[in-house]
Amino acid sequence: MTEWDIKKLQILRTLNERGTVTATAQVLLMTPSAVSQQLSNLAKQVGVPLLEAHGRRVRLTGAARLLLRHADAVLAQLERADAELAAYAKGEAGEVRVGAFATAVPALVVPAVRALRGAHPGISVRVREAEAGEAYDLLAAGDVDLALSLAAQAPREFEGGRFTQVTLLADPLDVALPRDHPLARTAALRLADLASEPWIFGGSGPWSEITRTACEAAGFVPEQAHSAAGWEAILAMVEAGMGVALVPRMAGAGAFGRSGVAMRELAADRPRRHVIAAVRRGAEASPTVSHVLAALRGATRA
Amino acid sequence: MTEWDIKKLQILRTLNERGTVTATAQVLLMTPSAVSQQLSNLAKQVGVPLLEAHGRRVRLTGAARLLLRHADAVLAQLERADAELAAYAKGEAGEVRVGAFATAVPALVVPAVRALRGAHPGISVRVREAEAGEAYDLLAAGDVDLALSLAAQAPREFEGGRFTQVTLLADPLDVALPRDHPLARTAALRLADLASEPWIFGGSGPWSEITRTACEAAGFVPEQAHSAAGWEAILAMVEAGMGVALVPRMAGAGAFGRSGVAMRELAADRPRRHVIAAVRRGAEASPTVSHVLAALRGATRA
DNA sequence: TCATTCTTTGAAGCAGATCTGAACGATTAC
DNA sequence: GTAATCGTTCAGATCTGCTTCAAAGAATGA
């Protein structure tokens, strides 16, 4: 028996509740004949008699009671599926798979998940760490539903492509320089003022080019004295007077408690790093995805 | 959505495994056309899109993955039902409801259930205590599958009726009399020798008449001096010299440790009490029921 | 005991759904 | 650019299930 029929199981269940074929037919808006046929059909499929005559009515056999237990479980499961799908349609259930770069996970995704748990308990988020390029591949392949990536420029919100992108956060880049540096107290610090300094390049992946890009936009080519993947290492080098660095305000907040480092805002044409959320074209219409997007937005303000 | 179709869920599951409509169709021995139609049909029923185009293939949506989890559970449940029904057909699964008189439960049913648990773990027994008359009503109404009752005569094993009866045990009745009674040492004790003794009638239900019936069969009318429902009370009265009594050997084994009571076998035309198992006509062919019957038989020999 | 009534079951006809086969649009590989 | 692959759509054929009608079995009442 490989081809199960839910309707037959429902008929069996109703027969068990009502006790007679006729009453079952009334409840299910069928004729007694149809009920009888379906049940004998089911019995033939399972290979075991389900009904036996008892006076002018029928009685369920042991096999029928056995089958009934499973039928109840199956029908209950289907009702749950129904309810969850209804919730899904309203954006109150479902799973959203998020691909995010490493530092975004604790800074954005985790707070968003936490907020989501309160506001939309039915929505679950599955996180997968992925750098920008990979994240877009995953997004295109359908392995994630939402990708978080970094970029130096805000994306043109092109609607014609395969993705829809929105900027979650435009984090300004501040300059980290030694506390006793002559420029540490300048009134209006501009990037060009640091043209002759030794620079410490940051980060991994696409981020490693951000310092060079920003400096070139300011009109000079920076001298790459050092480079490091983590912000803490970079700030340590700054503190030691080994150079200056561009640090996203989000990452460098408080300079990790290093008193020898001065964080200075840039006065003009301040470079920013953009945290971009991308979904497949059309997916932003999904209520579930849009709830996750809203939660991520909220996390940028916390 | 109230009308679920298992076949559609299987198609969705296979599509998830194989990844393409064509491969799914091959596995399920269908045409890609049919697969496509069934899936779009399912999506329409659910009210949420399940597939979206991805290149020249399709990808499952979040709703599809949500539905898939439930589909897996449902299909697994159905496979279990299938397995259990197959086991049921072989008599290795199922539930047998037994109606039994009170003293049969510890003496016969419990040992049988214990033995059954080892030999046929899939079979479960549901016990319901019922006196003889009630047990047969329950059996006729289909509320139990097997009835245990007591009778003074072995049933004629009539096959034409509604029930099939078999004698599980023909327990001889012994005479309990005070140890110092003159007849306590007679060589061949017959019931007629006790015609002038005061009798203690036993038991409840149909059993209360057994003493009278046996004595009348022996040619005299017993004097009912006392009566009690429990064998222990009866033996206490015998020990006190208040009368003699007929006691089933099974019930009176060891005379409950009363040294003042002598248990004597009857020499001739010894009356017996019969423990009878009855099933509805035809039910003895059920492997499950016959396994329980065999276990009950085995319990009579232990 | 007989008739009535209720229940279930069976046969024939019909309606709906599903499957097949071919054609089309779109995408990928060579 | 061309050919092959994939998914979908449409029309026709087939199948399953439902309804109507009819009959048989079993319980209730007189």
From TrEMBL, chains A, B:
What the entry lists under InterPro entries is as follows: LysR_HTH_N, LysR_subst-bd, WH-like_DNA-bd_sf, WH_DNA-bd_sf
Recorded hits in Gene3D superfamilies, A to Z, give: Periplasmic binding protein-like II, Winged helix-like DNA-binding domain superfamily/Winged helix DNA-binding domain
Keywords in alphabetical order, please: DNA-binding, Transcription, Transcription regulation
SUPFAM superfamilies under this entry?
Periplasmic binding protein-like II (SSF53850), Winged helix' DNA-binding domain (SSF46785)
Extract the Pfam families matched here.
Answer: HTH_1, LysR_substrate
Give residue ranges for domain HTH lysR-type: 4-61
* Keyword hit for DNA-binding: yes
Determine if DNA-binding is one of this entry's keywords.
Answer: yes
Query: What family does the database annotate?
Result: Belongs to the LysR transcriptional regulatory family.
Q: What is this protein called?
A: LysR family transcriptional regulator
The organism's taxonomy opens as: Bacteria, Bacillati, Actinomycetota, Actinomycetes, Kitasatosporales
